Amino acid sequence: MQTPAKVLEMDKTERYIPALRFGWLTPVYDPLFRWVFREEAFRRHMIEQASIQPGMRLLDLGCGTATLTILVKQLHPGVDVVGIDGDPNVLAIARAKVWKSGENVTLDQGMVDQLPYADRSFDRILSSLVFHHLNKDSKQRTFQEISRVLRPGGELIIVDIGPPHTPWTRLISKFMARLEEASDNIQGALPGMLQSAGFRPINEKARWAMIFGTIVFIQASKPGKEEDGL
Known about the structure:
With 230 residues, the protein is of the alpha/beta class. It has helices spanning 29-36, 39-49, 67-75, 88-101, 136-149, 167-176, 183-186, 190-196, 225-228; strands at residues 6-8, 57-61, 80-85, 106-109, 122-128, 150-161, 202-210, 213-221. It starts with 5 loop residues before the first strand and ends with a helix.
């Protein structure tokens, strides 16, 4: 019999925007995501970009219902996989999915700009459609936290809303920029924020057009010991 996912409960009074903005929409998150996105291709492409190796420790930042978390473990069983999210309702769905999958992953509850992990804890961090939920200050704090918990030479892979690159995405971005905190993403501010947090190099690996706009795949590396003088 499989052991259910471990969950770390953390008290937090900050306002947290659910994955679909309104908590009552949480139960339809998975079917809606499958309808709006090319989910299988999208997730697998992200994992391929991460160049994951056996023995690594990986964090799924803002793991949501743990679809990506579980897929990473299925594709790379020799990797220690951890997911963290601030929404307890989403994590309840995630725990059930992990239990059903039988995969041995850890799920923690916590805020992405105050990660409950020691310095240099992870080799890879994946973030899927999280940063457009965060205001500018929280984005910057989160990048600093990611830098703190990544090991030298570790990599961050982000997939999120980005600058429009087609006639349709330019049109829809005018609407999306008014929702939540997506304007920083649409204006292309994420690479500059990553650079300010000490990441280098920072590369845009791909752009995909979606029904709600452009998503970008960004790969950012934390300098190794020789590069940062450690």
